[in-house]
Protein: Glycogen debranching enzyme GlgX
Organism: Cryobacterium shii
Amino acid sequence: MTPSLLATTLTRQDGDADVNDRHDLMHRNLMATMLFSAGLPMILGGDEPGRSQGDDNNDCCQDNEISWFDWDAVDHEMLAFTRDLLTLRQENPALRPNWFRQSPDAGTGDTVRVLQADAEKFSDADWDDVDAQAMAFILEHVGADAFASLLNAGPKEVEFTIPSSPNQEWELATSSDPGQRVSSSGSTLPVRDGSFTLLRSRAWRSGLTGGRVPRP
């Protein structure tokens, strides 16, 4: 299924702001994790502005409101969020890895590390833990900005330890949580329940420019 269809598992309700906010949060989560995954994102036209097809994942035999595109119902905030994600993906090779590598000297410039919320390496046991609901992906590409993708699928806020190294600073790139904030002096970051946050470490700050002229 595509992002907007999956997000309809929590149906919007007229006049219920809490349910609708949760629905929108889920939609942003799904779109972000789809676009920042390895490979080619498979997105159906209409996912960007929140078109749900009336919760029908097989509308090819429909010629009615289910399959029609209602331009008056476009979610402009979701459309703008998706555009920002696409720009990030296009401009940053670390966000579109060709395949997963655990070491930068493995023949490619892409490195993907998987960590627990406390910044410890994700172990085989962690992968088998059905109760594990928080994880971080460190996405790196030689000579380019690095990113930390923080995922919290649990029902409570999670405090993430932000990985650090000399001269490395993290800033907020995007988040499914509109209220997410990042402190430049903090070593931990609270991530709200059921949300996604992406941090960026500028290559010119972290010394990963590979000899290129630092960007302004």
Observations:
- Residues 17-35 form the longest helix (19 residues).
